[in-house]
Amino acid sequence: MHFKISKKTFYQALDKVARAISASSPIPALSGIKIVIANNQIELTASDSDMSIFDIVKSDEDNQLVIYKEGSIVIEGKYILDIVRKIDSSTIEVEIADGYLTKISGGNTEFKINGVPTSDYPLIDFSKPQESFKISANDLQKMIVQTSFATTDRENRPILTGVNITVENKELTFAATDSNRLARKTQIIKCEDEINFIIPASSLLKIARIIDKNSEVEIAVSDKKVQFYFEDMIIQNRLIDGIFPDTNRFIPNAFQTIITLDSRDLLNAIDRASFIKSIDGVSIVNFQISENEFIVSSKSQEVGSSVEEIIKYEYEGEPIKISFSGKFLSEAIRAIEGSNIKISFEGEMKPFVVREVDDLNSTHLILPVRTNY
Amino acid sequence: MHFKISKKTFYQALDKVARAISASSPIPALSGIKIVIANNQIELTASDSDMSIFDIVKSDEDNQLVIYKEGSIVIEGKYILDIVRKIDSSTIEVEIADGYLTKISGGNTEFKINGVPTSDYPLIDFSKPQESFKISANDLQKMIVQTSFATTDRENRPILTGVNITVENKELTFAATDSNRLARKTQIIKCEDEINFIIPASSLLKIARIIDKNSEVEIAVSDKKVQFYFEDMIIQNRLIDGIFPDTNRFIPNAFQTIITLDSRDLLNAIDRASFIKSIDGVSIVNFQISENEFIVSSKSQEVGSSVEEIIKYEYEGEPIKISFSGKFLSEAIRAIEGSNIKISFEGEMKPFVVREVDDLNSTHLILPVRTNY
User: Fold this and answer.
1) Does A232 touch chain B (CB under 8 A)?
2) Which of B82, B272, B304 comes nearest A86 by C-beta?
3) Fold of B251-366
4) One fold for both B132-249 and B251-366?
């Protein structure tokens, strides 16, 4: 194996695939990046056995790729990334020097790193499933970021660590819940298939960071795996087994009280009230809302109390008193991104709905909590 | 106790004194800030029993301080800082509401926080020792930052966790060593006293972050404690007992080989070579220097090897081969701050001297290590 390539191109490609590498991988070879030079291109593979990434670098004018000899090697991910970053030269040369010892050089600097033969690397099946749909990377990122925070990280209910992605009647839905709150975002897409799968939120968040805002992403899915195609890259992830609850039927339609207000005002008030935490670190925030007064308060035996008034708000319906997790509401408001928040209450001990005013595509549902004051 | 003050002034004062608070303080009251309103001023005290900070806020045009009632309270440091920061108002009002429950309010927000009586707070003696000298805050920061990194954090040799500060014949010296390297910085000051004490490097680094670059600092010292006076603040710290080695006599004066080169070039080369670490995480870097060639290399059984050539350097004396900790040399170069580095070698297994060219006030000494290749 022997090739030369632009440092920038090589580093960016290595950096993207390396995100699949986990520090605590069960298989030693998986701490490496598999580099294969064949078919006049570089093929990079990295995996933690849950997520696998495959990327191709083809020769073009920009990347100055020159292949002298085909071959393959696995190099420790953190070594090759660091070396390529540190070498002070616009091009990098990689050559298997002796056995698996790999020479990486550029400028006045030459590294020789112990590699591992690709025969030690697990075979990963990147074959493409049949069902698929397309979405812009920008929209995909939004759907991920605006839902995945509502999952739980408790391993005892695996399906709630994932985001449920469905396509039904051309409506794409991302839904996530930790059973005390729900985040749900929908979008109309071009797809005739009916699709329903659960993918770990942690994987989705990694994917959101890798994909380029301006590209289009094709998502292909089977019973076992999902693949994200964009540019010359495939990101593949295992699915979570199980049946996700039908989240649509949780969302109430008839409301007793509806308020609208500036999201920044509300976020700041929640943030201040959330400062009062109980001994287990939870902040319970209370709303007391009527036509004349909107009081945000909190109280804990250990720390003390807070009380403040929100001056500017619109109100319709009946007065209400309700207590809930301050963290849940502030995360919902942040996810919505809009400047005007509408909160719709079904009743004192019923879940309430948080939405951007006039936007029904993004819905956040929060369960209230009982307090003894 | 009841007063009103500008949020900005109050927050900055709290933030500065709070740096003395340790998360793991042996005395519960020491997690708080003591607030005393007396003599028409606010007196703030915080301490972790090693370091104590005392600050006075007097009424002036900017800070809008109005005192309604004298009194005192101790409030949990992280609570009061967070509350004052979060309140959305230019002025903050603080009032003991009921017993030790303290009301902190501003704008539409009101917090009530459980305080502790000042009788639970340890008495701290801030009386001023007799011997003292003055130095600009800017110079003090440099002396701290350019020496304290060379201390050790191993508790088994307490004096080596500290910086030795001496005044002798009007020369102020900061010296620190972990027994494998030495950092030493001197400056001429106006002081007739002979002074010699050891202060923990960790405390000095905290002080460097608190003091304002433009102020002057007076340092007063006794057998037991040292005080740093600047503006309306006193930072007081315990000393480390023991006799510090006379570091001046370690520094060689006759050299076999002297090189000078660009500090950035050397730093980058050391950084690349330091990438090759042995299994215990140490990077041993080798120099091989002659009139015609300057090779920087490194090698480890586990990872591999690196080799690079430095092209631009000046050289006088005899050829030399020497191995040393890459971390020590790069920390010394960074501490020196200059763009031209002069390294003077006494011999292959002798400590070498790192200095900015033509600057004898800042000296770094590094012990070489034996390698078996």
Assistant:
1) no
2) B272
3) DNA Polymerase III; Chain A, domain 2 (3.10.150)
4) yes
Provide the pLDDT confidence category of residue A373 given band limits of 50, 70 and 90: low
Domain ranges within chain B, ordered by starting residue: 2-120, 132-249, 251-366
pTM of the entire structure?
0.88
Which residues of chain B are within 8 Å of residue A108 when distances are taken between CB atoms?
A: 308-311
By C-alpha distance, the chain B residue nearest A277 is: B79
Q: Any CB–CB contact under 8 A between B110 and chain A? A: yes
Q: What is the arithmetic mean of pLDDT over B59-75?
A: 95
Calculate helix-pair angle for A77-86, B263-273, nearest 10 degrees: 160
B-contacting residues in A 60-79 (Cβ below 8 Å): 79
- CATH of region A132-245, choose from 3.30.70.20, 3.10.150.10, 1.10.357.10, 3.40.1280.10: 3.10.150.10
Identify the CATH number of the domain defined by range B132-249.
Answer: 3.10.150.10
The rounded percent of chain B whose pLDDT value lies above 70 is: 99
Q: Which of A52, A206, A28, A47 is nearest to A117 (CA)?
A: A28
pLDDT value, residue A235: 98
CB contact under 8 A, B308 and A275: no
| A:B CB pairs within 8 Å | 80
CA B147, chain centre distance (Å): 9
Backbone region of residue B358 per phi and psi (left: phi > 0; alpha: psi in -120 to 50; beta: other values): left
pLDDT level of residue A245 (50, 70, 90 thresholds): very high
ipTM summary value: 0.83
Question: Has residue A214 got a pLDDT over 90?
Answer: no
Average pLDDT over residues B224-248: 95
> How far, in Å, CA of B225 to CA of B222, rounded?
5
Measured N-to-C along each axis, helices A201-210 and A137-145 cross at an angle, to the nearest 10 degrees, of: 140
Strands of the sheet with A71-76, listed across from one edge: A71-76, A32-38, A41-47, A51-58, A233-238, A225-230, A216-221, A131-136
What span, in angstroms and rounded, lies between the C-alpha atoms of B314 and A349? 79
Mean pLDDT, all residues of chain B: 94
> What pLDDT sits at residue A372?
66
Q: What is the pLDDT of residues B129-172, one digit of tens each?
A: 999 999 999 999 999 999 999 999 887 889 999 999 999 999 99
Contact A306 B110 (CB under 8 A): yes
The one-letter code for the residue type at B62 is D
pLDDT of amino acid B350: 95
Which of A79, A268, A308 lies nearest to residue B110, judging by beta carbons? A308
DSSP-assigned states of every residue in A181-231: EEEEEEEE-S--S-EEEEEEHHHHHHHHHHS-TTSEEEEEE-SSEEEEEET
What mean pLDDT, rounded, does chain A reach?
Answer: 94
- Amino acid letter, residue B103: K
Contact yes or no for A303/A276 (Cβ under 8 A): yes
Q: Which helix (H) or strand (E) holds B11?
A: helix B7-18
Q: Flag if B308 and A107 touch (Cβ within 8 Å).
A: yes
As its CATH architecture, domain A2-120 has: Roll (3.10)
CB contact under 8 A, A272 and B87: yes
Which of chain A's residues have a Cβ under 8 Å away from the Cβ of B79? Answer: 275, 303-304
Going through B232-293 in order, the beta strands assigned E by DSSP cover 233-238, 257-262, 284-289
How long, in residues, is chain A? 373
Taking an 8 Å cut-off on Cβ atoms, the answer to whether B272 and A304 are in contact is no
What type of residue is A177? T
